[in-house]
Design a protein that fits this description.
CATH class of one domain: Alpha Beta
CATH topology of one domain: Heat Shock Protein 90
CATH architecture of one domain: 2-Layer Sandwich
Helix content: 40-55%
Radius of gyration: 44 Å
Strand content: 15-25%
Largest sheet: 6 strands, antiparallel
Number of strands: 21
CATH superfamily of one domain: Histidine kinase-like ATPase, C-terminal domain
Shape: flat
Length: 695
């Protein structure tokens, strides 16, 4: 026993090392035993069970989806509107039903009805002229008493449609072409795992598996473990009864279940630490009691925030030195916290004062009021000091030690320079300069300069805007008077009988140019009034039927111009139910006249279609023409003032470039909008007016 005490290490570090080594031996012993008994076969068996469970879930989801689609088809076939097949779905009710059902299902599929003489009379795809080409497969399925068959790309399911008046009368069949691509989302293509759905009889495959095992799929249909893969199978029932789902898992991925083994190892280490804790407790009275005192003192300080706590340790050596250092550290922390608390209070007070000054400064409207308010606020904050403002640059050489300056500079936005504006001077009562006080004064000076810049910028902007509006309005009014005189003179000369044909053509050109210039001036005046906020609206509620009447009125007004170019204008009301919108009747009429005029102007042949329909919970008036179209790069620019699209044609139409800009600004006044769309040059243009629906 005496020899053992002599061999026992004297330091805490050495004792803990020996304890950790001895106790760490036992986990390694268990690791050796566990790894000896755990074989690869057990892990692979567990993996097969797990992946089969996943395959069953995938198979059940696919079968549930197909069964649900069959129920949907039987429900659709039983509806009363299916009787419309007798008259060839004249009202398109069946077609609308199939289109809506296809949207609701949100799958890659196609619904259509087939008469007994194999004619498609209703389809969920309005743009598809569907010809039924699988008649032989259809008859073969009926012969085998099946309600489905397969093509290269689809599962085709069908159900009979019988008259609701006479159940014995067969009207035709409802078909659903369910694309195999829908099944792709049920396949897996992850790292180390791939799956596939396939029909060995039709050699139809959905998904991908590893190429080096494809030969095996054509020979076996049961689970198989190769050198590299686990190959698992599950059979389908129902519509896919001849199909099989195949999973190929790399054995390296399957053996990832060895993570369970790693977790077990960590569990052993946790067990080892618990044992170490128990042994440490046995040594605590002799070795760790001083450390426990330090720990308890630390917890007490954290919970009570009492940084005057001191620790008394009777033992000698490293622990005693640690206790003394701990006591010194607590005293320094307590002193630092006191200083920090005082600084935080001062900074918070200064921050609140800065916010109050800033809130009042930004409300000033003139430079004089801004400076006066700043002086008053500073005097209120520091009543023991005297603040004054001077516009003259101070003589810094004669500056007394107690005098401080806040220099103010303002920006000259025309020259892009900063010029001296003035200085706020005050007397410093304390000879010792506080850097925080200096930052406080600099912050106030910055606030004052920013507000002065803002006041000048606002005044300059308002002056420029007013001058622009006054100039445009004055010049437009001044130009209209001589233009009216020119128009009157040219109209008089045109009626004069003694003019030659060339002279009449010259006079007509003068009249056209003057009339075009007068239109541009009127557009500019309208734009100025809108931007100046002088245009007021009269919002009214109008029904969709009244909007249709307004549209027809506009078409009647411009139909003569369209007939001169042999362009046909049509109106279609695609509204499914009446509703109300909020508009300004006069401005909407002007907008429609502008848009239809543009459509007629840029359409040399073809047609212009007006369509009323719902889009994005708004009533949309669509004006579709077959004209020259618009380049994609020009679409975003046409609503800018004085902007026109670049036309390559020789018959380039003249204009001010303000029609669309004015139309959109008018539309925005009553919360409407205008959108332009085009597929490109030569593809026509589509203008859409979106009206806000009344709630």
């Amino acid at each position: 026993m005496t020899l053992l005490k002599k061999l026992m290490p004297k330091t805490l570090k050495s004792k803990l090392r020996i304890a950790l080594f001895v106790i760490g031996f036992f986990p390694y012993l268990f690791i050796l035993i566990y790894s000896h008994n755990l074989g690869e076969k057990k892990i692979l068996d567990d993996a097969i069970v797990t992946y089969h469970s996943q395959m069953n879930q995938v198979r059940d989801r696919i079968e549930e989806q197909l069964l649900s689609l069959e129920k949907e088809m039987r429900f659709l076939a039983s509806l009363d509107m299916m009787n419309d097949m007798i008259v060839g779905d004249v009202d398109k009710r069946i077609t609308q039903l199939l289109i809506q059902k296809q949207k609701d299902l949100a799958l890659k599929m196609h619904l259509f009805t087939l008469t007994l003489d194999h004619k498609v009379i209703a389809s969920s795809d309005e743009n598809l002229q569907h010809n039924f080409i699988d008649i032989d497969a259809f008859h073969e399925a009926i012969k085998q008493k099946k309600d489905y068959f397969f093509t290269d790309k689809n599962i085709v399911m069908f159900t009979p449609i019988r008259s609701t008046l006479d159940k014995d009368q067969l009207l035709g069949y409802l078909f659903m072409e369910y694309s195999f691509s829908n099944l792709s989302m049920f396949t897996v293509h992850d790292k180390g795992i791939r799956s596939m759905l396939f029909n060995p009889e039709d050699t139809i495959k959905i998904g991908n598996v590893y190429e080096d095992e494809l030969l095996y799929l054509s020979v076996h249909r049961s689970d198989y473990v190769s050198d590299k893969y686990l190959i698992l199978y599950e059979e389908f029932e129902g519509v896919l009864s001849q199909w099989t789902i195949v999973y190929m898992i790399q054995k390296s991925v399957a053996l990832a279940f060895l993570d369970e083994f790693i977790l077990f190892v960590w569990g052993l280490f946790v067990f080892g630490f618990i044992v170490i804790a128990i042994i440490s407790f046995w040594f605590s009275k002799r070795i760790l009691e001083p450390i426990s005192k330090l720990n308890n003192a630390t917890k007490s300080i954290i919970s009570t925030k009492d940084y005057t706590t001191q620790v008394s340790i009777a033992s000698q050596g490293e622990i005693s030195e640690l206790a003394n250092d701990f006591n010194a550290m607590i005293r320094e922390i307590n002193h630092a916290f006191n200083i920090l608390e005082e600084e935080n209070k001062l900074r918070l007070l200064r921050f609140v004062q800065l916010i109050n000054i800033f809130n009042r400064l930004i409300q000033t409207q003139t430079e004089e009021s801004c400076i006066a308010l700043a002086i008053d606020e500073l005097q209120t904050l520091m009543p023991h000091q005297y603040f004054s403002f001077s516009s003259e640059y101070p003589d810094l050489e004669e500056k007394t030690p107690m005098t401080q300056y806040m220099m103010l500079y303002v920006k000259d936005f025309d020259k892009q320079t900063s010029d001296f504006y003035g200085v706020i001077s005050f007397t410093q009562t304390n000879q010792k300069t506080d850097p925080h006080e200096e930052k406080f004064y600099r912050s106030i000076a910055t606030m004052i300069m920013l507000q002065l810049d803002q006041i000048r910028l606002i005044a300059q902007t308002q002056a420029v805007s007013h001058a622009k509006s006054t100039f445009i309005s004055h010049m437009s009014h001044e130009l209209r008077t001589p233009l009216h005189t020119i128009l009157s003179s040219t109209q008089y000369l045109i009626s004069y009988e003694n003019l030659t044909a060339d002279q009449q053509e010259i006079i007509a050109t003068m009249e056209s140019s003057a009339d075009h210039l007068l239109g541009m001036i009127n557009d500019i005046l309208d734009l100025v009034q809108i931007e100046a906020g002088k245009v007021t609206i009269t919002p009214v509620r109008k029904t969709s039927d009244e909007i249709e009447m307004l549209t027809q009125e506009v078409i009647t007004m411009l139909d003569v111009l369209a007939e001169q170019k042999d362009v046909k204008i049509t109106l279609t009301n695609a509204m499914t139910k009446p509703l109300e919108v909020i508009i300004d009747y006069r401005f909407l009429k002007q907008i429609l006249i502008n848009l239809l005029s543009n459509a007629v102007k840029f359409t040399d042949e073809g047609s212009i279609d007006f369509i009323l329909k719902m889009c994005d919970e708004s009533l949309c008036i669509v004006i579709q023409d077959s004209g020259i179209g618009i380049d994609h790069d020009d679409l975003t620019l046409l609503f800018d003032d004085f902007t026109q699209a670049k036309r390559k044609s020789e018959n380039h139409q003249k204009g001010s470039g303000l029609g669309l800009a004015i139309s959109r600004k008018l539309a925005h006044l009553f919360n409407a909008d205008i959108i332009l769309e085009s597929e490109g040059i030569g593809q026509g243009t589509r203008a859409i007016v979106k009206l806000r629906v009344s709630s």
